[in-house]
């Protein structure tokens, strides 16, 4: 699963497999925490993150929602997603 962005110890990844399930989403890893974020709603759909990291990830997702959807289209075609600018 390629890493598409990293910031403040947070790793953002997206599977690239044509059979990946909807809705469009990405995976977040922070220490021992794991979560899945729905790209359309910019909300955590499963898993858990500490409060500060939730705010950072969701703010990042809103800023890069169009790029995340473009990546989703790539992965649904079995293509590797591109890197997205981290929060700075």
Structural class comes to alpha+beta
Radius of gyration: 12 Å
Total strands: the figure is 5
- Low-confidence spans: pLDDT under 50, at least 5 residues? none
Strand content: 25-35%
Individual helix count: 2
Quick description:
With 88 residues, this protein is of the alpha+beta class.
List keywords for this structure.
88 residues, 5-stranded antiparallel sheet, alpha+beta
Care to describe what's here?
By secondary structure, the protein is of the alpha+beta class. It has one domain (3-76). Helix content is 28%, strand content 31%. The chain contains 2 helices and 5 strands. The mean pLDDT is 93.
Topology:
Blueprint: E1 3-7, E2 10-13, E3 25-30, E4 33-38, E5 43-48, H1 51-63, H2 65-76
Antiparallel strand pairs: 1-2, 2-3, 3-4, 4-5
């Amino acid at each position: 699963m390629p890493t598409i962005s990293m910031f403040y110890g947070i790793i953002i990844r997206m599977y690239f497999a044509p059979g990946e399930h909807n809705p469009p989403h990405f995976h977040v890893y922070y220490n021992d925490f794991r979560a899945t974020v729905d790209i359309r709603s910019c909300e955590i759909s499963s898993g858990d993150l500490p409060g500060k990291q939730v705010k950072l990830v969701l703010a990042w997702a809103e800023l890069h929602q169009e790029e995340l959807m473009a990546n989703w289209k790539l992965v649904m075609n079995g293509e590797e997603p591109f890197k997205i600018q981290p929060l700075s």
